[in-house]
Design goal:
Number of strands of chain B: 5
Helix content of chain A: 25-40%
Number of domains of chain A: 1
Strand content of chain A: 15-25%
Oligomer: heterodimer
Largest sheet of chain B: 5 strands, parallel
Order of helices and strands of chain A: EHEHEHEHE
Number of helices of chain A: 4
Order of helices and strands of chain B: EHEHEHHEHE
Structural class of chain B: alpha/beta
Distance between the termini of chain B: 26 Å
Shape of chain A: globular
Number of strands of chain A: 5
Largest sheet of chain A: 5 strands, parallel
Distance between the termini of chain A: 21 Å
Strand order of the largest sheet of chain A: 4-3-2-1-5
Strand content of chain B: 15-25%
Radius of gyration of chain A: 12 Å
CATH architecture of chain A: 3-Layer(aba) Sandwich
């Protein structure tokens, strides 16, 4: 039942991260890409929500999209795993389905 | 693993085509099979060979073409989306009485059934868009 959920919008622009967290089941993985990586930054109003989600889900962020937005690794919430595109492919393979929260 | 990729946005306006390209390339380089890349909605604009970005910018259309040539990818534009946006191949030009074509090499125009088939035939469908 493990699914991969992709979120490509900032949580300050759209509620897709919040929705993905709410509707995904325990054991799911959530990958933040494009503007979605803003949800992985420390010290924001969304940090608590993301940390709570990591209680029973894995959260990932795409490295090149973090870099494109000048979000250095030390500004990423502890426990969020940073992956490259090869890691994205591995996540797709490791999960049964991929749900894009567009 | 067999993958299908769906792109819903045009190039240069949205990051979706860039993300889809890098994802598809990474999957192919890992040895996975990409059954089809389906371009839907404004995504069909990824398939015009008339695109001419500045020389210091990436050529998103040619990048797809080169990847398709290297790996024999099936790049499909949704026909209804293509007609609305003026993406034309030989068949469409004849059928609709158009005086030119603009589809890029390695791309083809077909129906939404191709998306459904790709989803059925593949282990995963990965969607990029808004």
């Amino acid at each position: 039942m493990a699914d991969l959920h992709t979120v490509n919008k900032s949580p300050f622009e759209k509620n897709s991260l919040e929705t993905a967290i709410r509707y995904s089941m325990a054991g799911s993985s959530i990958l933040l890409l494009e503007d979605g990586v803003y949800g992985a930054t420390k010290g924001t109003a969304m940090e608590g929500m993301v940390k709570d989600a990591m209680g029973d889900k894995k959260v990932y962020a795409l490295r090149s999209d973090l870099m494109a937005r000048a979000i250095k690794e030390d500004r990423v919430i502890d426990g969020v795993e940073i992956v490259d595109y090869a890691g994205f492919v591995d996540l797709v393979e490791a999960n049964d389905k991929v749900q894009a929260w567009l | 693993m067999k993958l299908a990729v769906q792109v819903n946005e045009g190039p240069y306006q949205h990051q979706a085509s860039d993300s889809a390209y890098h994802f598809t390339k990474a999957a192919l380089e890992k040895g996975h099979e990409v059954f089809r890349v389906f371009f839907y909605h404004d995504g069909v604009l990824n398939g015009t060979r008339l695109t001419t970005p500045p020389q210091d910018d990436r050529n998103i259309v040619n990048r797809w073409v080169e990847l398709a040539e290297k790996y024999d990818l099936d790049l499909v534009l949704c026909v209804a989306a293509a007609q609305r946006r003026g993406l034309v191949d030989e068949g469409e030009a004849q059928r609709n009485g158009k005086d030119a074509t603009n589809i890029a090499p390695k791309f083809r125009i077909s129906g939404l059934g191709q998306l459904i088939e790709a989803a059925i035939q593949s282990d995963r469908l990965v969607v990029f868009g808004d």
